[in-house]
């Protein structure tokens, strides 16, 4: 049984999902009744993603298959609008270090301004994942570094394949 009823959103680019993301999603699913992992498909971002939104969603579906109260959806509107559409009462995100704080502080304030009815909740990263980011993992894999301890196995395999195509 979970502690809080209702739905929350765990949003992110997830390019790709890392073991750190998975830790936050798993811990969130132990607290909240329903968790929707929201995969951003942001057409305004200049930088291209390594994986398409559909591929990123498929990795999350595969790696969270054992979590019965977790599902994944792609969104391309405002995060608070997406949360409202789902009837979610909160946005839940991971917080790794002080360096995350400034960005997340701004996002939380902006999202509160857009919709004060949707709370932003932060889950502190487990210490062994506090250094882990999708950007870091992509960079390591690009230069042939071993990322098998940092991302789920299907993601590591797909990264090797995708980057060898480049
Ligand atoms: O750090 P990430 O994973 O790229 O974060 C993505 C996201 C959506 C969680 C972050 O950009 C955010 O909190 N955005 C809020 C503003 C918003 O709604 N943007 C539109 C997304 S299409």
Determine the strand fraction and express it as a percent band: 15-25%
Shape: globular
Number of strands: 5
Walk across the major sheet and give the strand order: 3-2-1-4-5
- Please count the helical segments: 6
Major sheet: 5 strands, parallel
Approximately how much helix is present in the residues? 40-55%
Mean pLDDT: 95
Low-confidence stretches: none
End-to-end separation in angstroms reads 46 Å
Radius of gyration: 16 Å
Offer a quick outline of the entry:
This protein is of the alpha/beta class and 166 residues long.
Write up this protein.
- Helices cover 42% and strands 22% of the residues.
- With 166 residues, it is an alpha/beta fold.
- The model has no long low-confidence stretch (mean pLDDT 95).
- Bound molecules: 4'-phosphopantetheine.
Tags for this model:
single chain; 166 residues; alpha/beta; five-stranded parallel β-sheet; 5 strands; globular; binds 4'-phosphopantetheine
Show the helix and strand layout.
Blueprint lengths: L3 E9 L6 H13 E9 L12 H11 L6 E6 L3 H8 L3 E6 L2 H17 L4 E6 L9 H9 L10 H12 L2
Parallel strand pairs: 1-2, 1-4, 2-3, 4-5
The site of 4'-phosphopantetheine has 10 residues, from β1 and α4.
């Amino acid at each position: 049984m979970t502690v809080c009823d209702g739905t929350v959103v765990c949003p992110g680019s997830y390019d790709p999902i890392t073991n750190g993301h998975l830790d936050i999603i798993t811990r969130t699913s132990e607290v909240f009744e329903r968790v929707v992992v929201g995969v951003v498909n942001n057409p305004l971002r200049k930088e291209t993603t390594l994986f398409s939104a559909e591929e990123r969603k498929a990795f999350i579906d595969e790696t969270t298959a054992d979590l019965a109260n977790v599902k994944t959806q792609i969104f391309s509107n405002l995060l608070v609008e997406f949360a409202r559409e789902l009837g979610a009462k909160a946005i839940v995100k991971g917080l790794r270090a002080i360096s995350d704080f400034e960005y997340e502080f701004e996002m939380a304030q902006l999202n509160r301004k857009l919709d004060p009815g949707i709370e932003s909740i932060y889950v502190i990263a487990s210490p062994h994942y506090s250094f882990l980011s999708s950007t870091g993992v992509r960079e390591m894999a690009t230069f042939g570094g071993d990322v098998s301890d940092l991302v789920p196995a299907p993601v590591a395999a797909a990264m090797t394949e995708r980057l060898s195509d480049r």
